[in-house]
Design goal:
Elements lengths: L3 E5 L4 H12 L3 E6 L7 H11 L5 E5 L5 H11 L3 E4 L8 H4 L1 H21 L4 E7 L23 H20 L3 E6 L2 E2 L8 H11 L2 E4 L6 E2 L2 E2 H12 L23 E6 L5 E2 H12 L4 E4 L15 H7 L7 H15 L9
Parallel strand pairs: 1-2, 1-4, 2-3, 4-5, 5-6, 6-11, 7-10, 8-13
Antiparallel strand pairs: 9-12
Length: 343
């Protein structure tokens, strides 16, 4: 009998791709999303139109912060596995709209944990972020590095999620796997992300705001690699680490069924090289507006994914150019811009 998987944020970028992948593999997927307007809701609606045609998919519009609604949903659906992707995203948005992060990322997450606790969930996987590494400068980022210095409220809520999940793993033996995503990109992505907004502005002839005068590096991770990593991890619930010691506690594992993984490409790219690839794939030259470092940003992200590879036998490796080619091809099709680079 196929397991039922609950995916929160199913109409979101990663949730959309993961839902398609799991349904095609024969899983029953119950998706929830509040379809908020943080970015153009039409994109979420269009994703949902595709998902609703899939065999094995059921959707409910539901807000994570709705305590009663979430409790009722858990009791009705009775999922085996929960993959929690819904959150208020965005580093810069958290500076101007802090309360939305508290409602979704903290209040919403406790509703997820309580739903799992009271309904015998086999495995909770939840999205964290590379942002938790904050002011750390040692690279590559390792899951056992301390992450005590977040530089945005968004990052602070994601670290809070990790700590909340650990407490439930410890108290209730709930298997919890945290997923620290590194700059995910690809078709059907989020318009607030740099690759999407840069492409949009290049086609519209608008200037790009390039922060820290272009001196930044990001570990770009193609969405298919994220999906493959999640599916593999979902099939092996977290277990207590027999080598974990309270005398020298490692942050990424525990004597409770809890673990943390980086999911990144392990190949940081220079921001200016990233812009050059988009220029080449769109056939347009970008107009650059060089800016100082933005509050909440970090200079570089770089994932050590050896733990992921050891646990799953998989290592994200899609080259940036390959991923950007696929994104630009989708972008042209979605916005009906025609085929091939414009001259």
């Amino acid at each position: 009998m196929s397991k039922t998987i609950l995916i929160t944020g199913a109409a979101g970028f990663i949730g959309f791709h993961l839902t398609q992948h799991l349904c095609k593999k024969g899983f029953s997927v119950y998706g929830i999303d509040n379809l908020n307007d943080y970015y153009d809701p039409q994109l979420k609606t269009d994703r949902l139109d595709i998902l609703n045609k899939l065999e094995g998919f059921t959707f409910e519009k539901l807000d994570l912060a709705d305590r009663n609604g979430m409790a009722k949903m858990f009791k009705t659906v009775k999922p085996n596995i929960v993959i929690h992707l819904a959150a208020q995203a965005g580093v810069r948005y958290s500076i101007t709209n802090p309360y939305s992060y508290i409602d979704s990322n903290l209040s919403g997450f406790i509703n997820i944990l309580e739903g799992c606790r009271h309904n015998d969930i086999e495995h909770l996987l939840f999205a964290s972020s590379s942002s938790v590494y904050g002011a750390n400068s040692k690279v590559p980022f390792d899951e056992n590095d301390t992450v005590d210095h977040p530089v945005s409220l968004y990052a602070a809520t994601k670290k809070s999620n990790e700590m909340m999940a650990h407490s439930y793993a410890h108290l209730y033996s709930l298997p919890c796997t945290g997923l620290r995503f590194f700059t995910v990109y690809g078709p059907w992505g989020r318009p607030d992300m740099a690759y999407y907004s840069f492409t949009q502005k290049i086609y519209n002839g608008e200037s790009l705001n390039v922060f820290n005068n272009g001196d930044m590096m990001r570990d770009f991770t193609y969405v298919d690699d994220i999906v493959e990593s999640i599916e593999r991890l979902s099939q092996t619930p977290a277990t207590p680490d027999p080598n974990w010691s309270s005398d020298a506690p490692t942050p990424s594992t525990s004597n409770a069924p809890y673990r943390i993984f980086n999911i990144g490409n392990s190949n940081p790219e220079k921001l200016m090289d990233f812009i050059n690839i988009i220029e080449e794939e769109t056939g347009h030259k970008a107009k650059l507006n060089m800016m100082p470092m933005q509050d909440g940003d970090v200079h570089a992200t770089y994932a050590d994914t050896s733990a992921l590879n050891k646990a799953t036998g998989f290592k994200p490796a899609t080259p940036l150019r390959t991923g950007i080619q696929k994104f630009v091809r989708w972008y042209r099709d979605y916005y009906k811009l025609g085929n091939g680079p414009a001259i």
